[in-house]
Amino acid sequence: MAHKTLFYIVLCVGLFRTDAIFFSDLSFAEIIKIYAQYYNEATVSDAELSETRNIADVVQQNDNLYKNLTCLIENFLKRYVPSSMPTLAQNKWWGEGPPYVDTSIRPYEIRFNRQVIDELRARLAYRKNFTRNLEGSANTYGMNRNLLNQVLDYWLNRYDFETRERYLNRFPQYITNVQGLDIHYIHIVPPPGSKKVIPLLMIHGWPVTNREYYAVYDFLLEPKNTNFVFEIIAPSIPGYGYSQPTYKIGLAPYQVGIIFKNLMARLGHQKFYIHAGDVGLWVGSHMSTIYQEDVLGLHTTTPYSAMPQTFVKIALGALNPTSLVDSRYVNRLYPLTMTLINLIESSGFFHMHATRPDTLGVGLEDSPSGLAAWLLAIYIQAANPNALKRDDGNLLQAYNIDDILDVLTIYWDSHCITTSLRFYAEFTAVLQDPTNIKLELTPTQVPYGALKFRYEVLYQPDSLLKNKYPNLVHSTTLDFGGHFSSFEYPDVIANSIYQAVEKMQNFYRTKAG
Amino acid sequence: MDDVGTIGCNELHAASQRDGWTRCHFSQSVPRGGGIAFARCFACVLLGDDTGSSLPFLSEISIPTQGAGNKLMTPLGLQVCMGGDDDLHFGPAMVNKLLAVAVLGGIGFVVWRYLCPSCHPPKPPVLDADEWWGPDHLKATRDESIKPFKVVFKPDMIKDLKDRLSRARKWTPSLEGVAFEYGFNSKSLEKVLQYWKDSYQFEAREKYLNTYPQFTTFIQGLNIHFIRVKPDATQGVEEEEEGRRGLIGAVDKASLIKEAKVQKKQERLKRIRERERSGQIKNLHSERTASTRDWSSLLNNDFLKYMQQVVPLLLLHGWPGSVREFYELIPLLTKQRPGRNFVFEVVVPSLPGYGFSDAAVRPGLATPQIAVIMRNLMRRLGHKKFYVQGGDWGSVIVSNMATLFPEDILGHHTNMPFVQHKCTLLKTLIGSVFPSWVVEEKYAERMYPLSKFFSFLLEESGYLHLQATKPDTVGVALTDSPAGLAAYILEKFSTWTVFDYKHLPDGGLTKKFTLDQLLDNLMIYWSTSSITTAMRLYSEDFSIKKRALKLENIPSPVPTWVLQARYELAFQPAGLLKYKYPNLINVTILDEGGHFLAFEMPAVVADDVFNAVSAFKDWHKNKAKEGKTEL
User: Fold this and answer.
1) Per the CATH hierarchy, to which homologous superfamily does domain B136-234+309-450+542-626 belong?
2) Residue A331: pLDDT above 50?
3) pLDDT the model gives residue A225
4) A503-507, B23-27, B175-179, B373-377: lowest mean pLDDT where?
5) What GO biological process, any one, is recorded here (chain B) (predicted)?
6) Is B17's pLDDT higher than 80?
7) How many angstroms separate the CA atoms of B505 and B333, rounded?
């Protein structure tokens, strides 16, 4: 849900910023002091002041209004980009009780708890008669009752828990304790051969677990005309699926990044590539910002930059959209009002997760129907927002329903919905933990590969992505697919990962040469 | 150098006169804040600001002396002194801020001059008074009857509820050291659910919910549920009859007397004619005397009630409340008070889609449309003119009623005023730079800084964002899980009662309410499965269609009285409210109380409503004297 990240950041950070500058009762010095706490920058340095004075020169060089404004503001905004990386504790303890060290790696198989499954079925069977949808509202007011009942009936009567369990155990899984939390991960080592083995960390999103990439693994394991093969490590984020949740405040994406870095180190991989999507993108992006030496490359879906100059350029771009975006893709970003309205329309869930996850969690923990509605509505929206106007939401056409129900069953069996929602709250707790923003605002030199599907609510052209990822080496824009394309188009994702990694290796060769 | 003392600024140390300048020394100084301080100083002088709240950042300013003890009056002579360590520093940062003020001012002026509709107040739109919200096949139905209603907790429903509560899973533990900051605390939730399952007396509470006479009536395709309590009516039978006569609804004494006279005259004529026919008529004079006696006896009995003035009052609840919010308030309003020559007949409807009222079957039933339904309800009860009171959505609806039907609403009392008139918003923005221009200093912290208010709103409005966009999705879980519903609804009764209650492990839920009170309200949602339809009101009211009506920009001439609790979600001083309510009579500002004010502090609300209606009556009297209205 990275596009919602953007929205939230606009609201939360942007609002706070502009408000702090323009409308607050704070003096500028006080604002600077507050930012100093954020960015460890006590004052505006002389160098920055002189930089601002140079704007006059810049203006003369470009006579294009748009470019002028952008440069001007970009220069001004540079002061908000932190110059130094924060020092982060690499071994923070997230478990219960006093810290201990347990580096054992235990094989793991998913075994649904029979009692839980029986109870799940009982709850599904005795579900209430849900409220009728308004006439003609389809899925626009939220989950359509008939569609929901259709899926719930399938879950109750036709979803085969045992077969699916076997399917889920197709890949070797392990659990190991990192920083006090038992992390569940899939680890696929390629058969020995002449090709170079490249470690790839794959980070899933919400509402999924490492189940998200099952089909992608298959395509990644297929032999290709490349001189390398992948060794896949796909952990579940703590609090998702069978990875243990923490009961301590502050397990933000970058903290998960630290955990995953430690996990990779335990598996013998100091340097590795990352693929990520949705909330996993926060983790992957922050990892590649913190460990710019160790992360060899980052490939993601829903690419975005939350740098201040990106927002300014997007806003200014409204004056002349084609100056910013290729005319083929203009309608993915402009008119800006429509984009914003769509973001607001679709981000209610994000707002709730970020502010009151525990309240919402109660109902979703207690009612499998509620959980299903909550997740299905996200899947419908993600595949194609226009399908909301249809009674069937295009849900069963876009996805294999077993995939979705696997996720639902894992969420129910592992009782992880509330802890998974809290991840949003930790990500947006910017006042409590400014490191999140600081990392969002720090560019990374790690080579980057972007995969842009058609119905991602957020679209940014490469020029904007370069604000955050100057070494953008691979970018593909597609005319199909939605936010959870790992279910819809796993082959496309796998191919894109291969291409990106090849380009990244070329990038390193060129750099070395 | 002789000191002339302070000029009313908190931060001001002293002012001294020298070389024909008054020199002000301030305790606070911030080197980089000079630009804005200058602007503030300027504004301060322009506005003759006594509080000095807009002058905190300058260390020293000088103004030409105009005599001893003078105020800052002459902007032209203002001079900023620079010197010592407190040099003013016009860096780009400050230029930026100055620029911001200038731009803001410029935009403000343009908007003020050209866009502010106060010169051409728009006329309220006319809404379809018979718009049909029920199923199409009922359109032929013309049922205007008023049916008695009783709350029934069916044994099946209770059993199912208890089953669901006892099946509850072990809740995900709250994070260490977290109370309600991430939402409903799991330990506290267990206790509440335990109480609901084992200690809540369903039968006794059902009986309590039936304390007052309740009815339903069919309006625009929907069965609307309402409580109706008359001052001396303990029985709920003959009300309808009286209501139809439309007498109680009329508060106008003169017209009542006139009507009674006409009635009496007709009766007398009738009697005379009868007697003529039977040959009994002998002495017309004595007959006339008798008739006069009859009339005075009427005065003594029924008419005294009219003299006492039973005034109709519509009370409207909001989300996540119900009619239950008013159970403690109703007896206080319907009981006669010493020193008051009026008492209330209250009508307390469930909003459409809430509790025992039907929900619309098609999109579009937003607050203006509910206002139409409520007016139709009051008309059916015989009240052509009446007073209104509301909180939460209720306040929005009564405000819409006052805007759409200014002729019918005699007075408007609200405990959640939130005006979104263009000018109000603009002034609020400008006030972030010059707060003292907008709000009294002691209440400034309820509004400013805006960043604090916005981040508060952002944190609190997740539910709103959700309900305004996808109510049906979250509705599934809340319809299926009583625990989920309890957490979702009761969280609001914690945080919105006192904001800081979210830091208490039990959410302070029972500090102002009893669990029985809270669960009564919850039962109204659970037993009717109405949470989804209730939440849809957010979607409707934030819809493009509703916003296109722009009711927020149409001032309402109805006399308005505002009650503002300390912990209401938003605070607006009278100066901001007046754009929408030009006849704002009074603002009562409390230092305590939360969002569910009628529920939490019924006595305070009752007193305030009596005061308000008393003032509304005086206002109408004065108006009548001016000959502008019939009253």
Assistant:
1) Alpha/Beta hydrolase fold, catalytic domain (3.40.50.1820)
2) yes
3) 87
4) B23-27
5) epoxide metabolic process
6) no
7) 36
- pLDDT at position B428, please? 86
Site from B480, B485, B494 to mutate, A interface, most A CB atoms within 10 angstroms: B480
**Would you say A24 and B451 are in contact if contact means Cβ atoms under 8 Å apart?**
yes
The upper half-sphere exposure of residue B563, i.e. CA atoms within 13 Å in the direction of its Cβ, equals: 29
Of B222, B291, B201, give the one whose Cα is nearest residue B519: B201
CB B449 within 8 A of CB B432: yes
CB-CB under 8 Å, A24 with B465: no
On whether any CB of chain A is under 8 Å from the CB of B93, the answer is yes
Written as one letter, the residue type at A349 is F
Query: Domain A105-308+349-512 adopts which CATH fold?
Result: Rossmann fold (3.40.50)
Q: How far is CA A258 from the centre of its chain?
A: 16
User: B572 CB near a chain A CB, below 8 Å?
Assistant: no
pLDDT category of residue A374 using cuts at 50, 70 and 90: very high
The β-bridge partners of B562 are B414, B587
Is the backbone peptide bond immediately before B557 cis, with ω within 30 degrees of 0?
Answer: no
More confident residue, B517 or B90: B517
A465: tokens are 């992505």
* pLDDT above 80: residue A359: yes
Q: How many CA atoms lie within 13 A of A150 on its CB side?
A: 12
As for the ipTM of the complex, it is 0.84
pLDDT in tens, B400-453: 999 999 999 999 999 999 998 888 888 888 888 888 888 888 898 888 888 888
Contacts of B332 (CB under 8 A, 6+ apart): B602, B603, B606
Count of CB pairs separated by less than 8 Å, A with B: 256
Report the distance separating Cα B208 and Cα B202, nearest Å. 10
Measuring CA to CA, how many Å separate A262 from each of A103, B418, B500? Answer: 11, 52, 39
**Helical ranges in B150-283 per DSSP H:** 155-166, 186-194, 202-209, 239-245, 253-278
Which of B108-133 are b and which e, b meaning 16 or more Cβ less than 10 Å from the residue's Cβ?
Answer: eeeebeeeeeeeeeeebeebeeeeeb
User: What phi and psi, each to the nearest 5 degrees, are found at residue B391?
Assistant: -135, 160
Of B392, B520, B541, B608, the active-site residue reads B392
Lateral strand order in the sheet of B560-564: B146-149, B214-219, B222-229, B343-349, B310-316, B386-390, B409-414, B560-564, B584-589
Angle at CA of residue B337, ends B332 and B339, nearest 5°: 150
Domain boundaries, chain B: 5-115, 136-234+309-450+542-626, 257-307
Q: Is the pLDDT of residue A380 over 50?
A: yes
Exposed (0-12), middle (13-18) or buried (19+): which is A101, by Cβ within 10 Å? exposed
β-strands A272-276, A196-203: how paired? parallel
- Enter the tokens of residue B542: 């934030």
Q: In this complex, do A356 and B175 lie within 8 Å of one another by their Cβ atoms?
A: no
B168-224 per-position pLDDT tens digit: 788 999 999 999 999 999 999 999 999 999 999 999 999 999 999 999 999 999 999
User: What are the structure tokens assigned to B168, written together?
Assistant: 């509850």
- Please give the pLDDT value at position B170: 87
Note the pLDDT tens digit of each residue in A113-155.
Answer: 999 999 999 999 999 999 999 999 999 999 999 999 999 999 9
Whether a cis peptide bond, with omega within 30° of 0, leads into B231 is: no
Q: For residue A424, what pLDDT is reported? A: 95
Strand order in the sheet with A448-452: A105-108, A173-178, A181-188, A228-235, A196-203, A272-276, A295-301, A448-452, A472-477
Residues 457-496 of B with CB under 8 A from A: 458-463, 465-481, 483-488, 491
Dmax (CA) for chain A in angstroms is 73
pLDDT band per the 50, 70, 90 thresholds, residue B6: very low
